[in-house]
Design goal:
The chain is α+β, with helices and mostly antiparallel strands. The protein contains five helices and ten strands; from the N terminus they run ααααβββββββββαβ. Strands 1, 2, 5, 7, 8, 9 and 10 form a seven-stranded antiparallel sheet that branches. It has a three-stranded antiparallel sheet with strand order 4-3-6. It is globular. The chain starts with a helix and ends with a strand.
């Protein structure tokens, strides 16, 4: 009996040592996975724009192969469907830490906003490299989580990240929520709420319209 208790105690100690390390590894892996997804999305946008007079799908009418009218109604899926050839798989539209959504198997049957973790910047254009092109959709405005649809953010909107994803691990405590933003220049940055607000002021426009899936 004593030997059994000793073994249990040793296993408990080992578990207490290993679990935090595993949590850190899992967080870093999921964070990098989300950044990788957004970079692939940014590349898809760039390739599509090169074939369409340097315009994104939200700048091109549906009649000309874009998604302008549809994305203006909050139909985020339509924007990514237009770029399906460049994206290759809808799985990259799901953030690895987003447990509320399920990746679609294809861009046709059943593909909708529920299969997407990232917003679309309606007014993003190549002339404003610091505008928001895409990124995590877990925003809160005035402390209230945003819902699916169109969101207008002025430079002074009290926008913040919710704690649903990307809570960075520190050796002593859990830091506030963070989120990833894909900019028009193709870079992906992980920002705190303060960083998000600063980036919003540097987009070069007074109001940023985002389509939230």
């Amino acid at each position: 009996m004593v030997e059994v208790l000793v073994v249990v105690a040793v296993l408990t100690i080992i578990a207490a040592i290993l679990l935090p390390a595993l949590a850190i590894t899992k967080y870093k892996t999921s964070k990098l996975g989300c950044v990788t997804c957004l970079k692939q999305i940014g590349l898809a946008y760039r390739i599509w724009a090169q074939d369409n007079n340097d315009k994104y799908p939200m700048q091109v009418s549906v009649t000309n192969g874009g998604a302008m009218e549809l994305i203006a109604t909050g139909n985020v899926a339509a924007c990514f469907q237009v770029m399906s050839n460049q994206l290759s798989t809808p799985k990259i539209l799901i953030c690895p830490t987003d447990t509320n959504r399920i990746a679609a198997t294809n861009f046709a049957i059943g593909f909708n906003n529920d299969n997407i973790s990232y917003f679309v910047g309606l007014d993003a254009d190549l002339n404003h490299p610091q505008m928001f092109l895409s990124g995590d959709d877990n925003f809160a405005v005035g402390g209230v989580p945003v819902k699916s649809g169109l969101l207008q953010l002025s430079t002074h909107t009290p926008v913040a990240w919710t704690s649903l994803r990307h809570v960075a691990y520190d050796s002593h405590f859990w830091t506030p929520a963070r989120g990833n933003i894909l900019f028009v220049d193709g870079s992906v940055q992980q920002l705190t709420t303060k960083g998000l607000q600063q980036a919003l002021q540097q987009t070069g426009v007074a109001t940023n319209r985002l389509a939230i899936p």
